Amino acid sequence: MALMPHMHRGPSAIKRLLDDYDRYLSGHALDPHPRAYAPTFDMRESKEAYELEGELPGVKQSDVDIEYIDTHTIVIKGHTERASQLDEGSWWISERSTGDFRRSFSFPSTVDPENTRARLRDGVLSVTIPKVGSTWEAKKVKVEDE
Asked: In terms of domain of life, where is this protein from (predicted)?
């Protein structure tokens, strides 16, 4: 019998497992005061763009704001809350976080804010960030006569 369920291998899966274990050991899983919300994201790179996918369960489209702070960095921020967060006597355990969140991602190449596309569907935010000048070619400069 396996001690751990099948999961994707890699540093992020191990980090999540260790975070859950640490929360269990410290008793924070039973803490009535929720922690700040920090959504998890996956990022991949193709030849033309960077693609982000983040988990935003229960977050409304109107509560998500995406902006560029420079030509290499995008910031995703927003707010999540649950109605009747901890009504008197109604919750035994509250592990889901609420409140404001903010994530920023920096890219090694210049990106195109004008053609960035974002979609929120079924609690997953998908953002496609096109690269600018992803294929650099040598260019000759013509020297003109006086």
From this structure: Eukaryota
